[in-house]
Amino acid sequence: MGEQPLITDNAFDMRAALPQGGALLGIDLGTKTIGIASCDAGWRFASPGKTLPRGKFSRDREALGALIAERHIAGLVIGLPRNMDGSEGPRAQSARAYARNLAEAFALPVLLWDERWSTVSAEAAMISQDMSRARRATRIDSHAAAVILQGAIDALAGGGI
């Protein structure tokens, strides 16, 4: 068998796996939806994208595969839902399993990024933009994905943590 794609929670390792940079896809996994964000190949700005309904992995893989091909994605950043004390529970283990499945499906490196406070930060930003509660509800997951991705690319562009 071939070499397994990198799955790491260390920005330095992810940067080494992508020496030429490349567009990244940020993913905020929810139980019912998947928030998507993307960034430019130079790792400067993360932008919120779509919110996909979460279903069976085969359907998720198909939808994500289309985005990966369309945007020429070089790597994935997946939010890792740690507890406030930094420990990992069932949701973090589920995110790690999902990351393994995506890494294998697309042969792309994956950075697991601590997502504590990402939804809170995203909601605060949307409130500051005077976005209505109804509009925030439909966009929170993709905005949280952008917060996760921006944190990761800030670390990647700075050479790691």
Q: Mind explaining what this structure looks like?
A:
The chain is α/β, with parallel strands linked by helices and 161 residues long. The protein has one domain (7-157): Nucleotidyltransferase, domain 5 (2-Layer Sandwich), CATH 3.30.420.140. Helix content is 47%, strand content 21%. The protein has five helices and six strands. It has helices at 11-17, 57-71, 90-106, 118-128, 133-157, and strands at residues 7-8, 24-29, 33-39, 46-53, 75-80, 110-114. It has a six-stranded mixed beta sheet, with helices on both faces. A hairpin with a 6-residue loop joins strand 3 and strand 4 (46-53). Helix 1 (11-17) packs across helix 5 and helix 4 (118-128) crosses helix 5. The protein is globular. It starts with 6 loop residues before the first strand and ends with a helix. The relative contact order is 0.24. The mean pLDDT is 86.
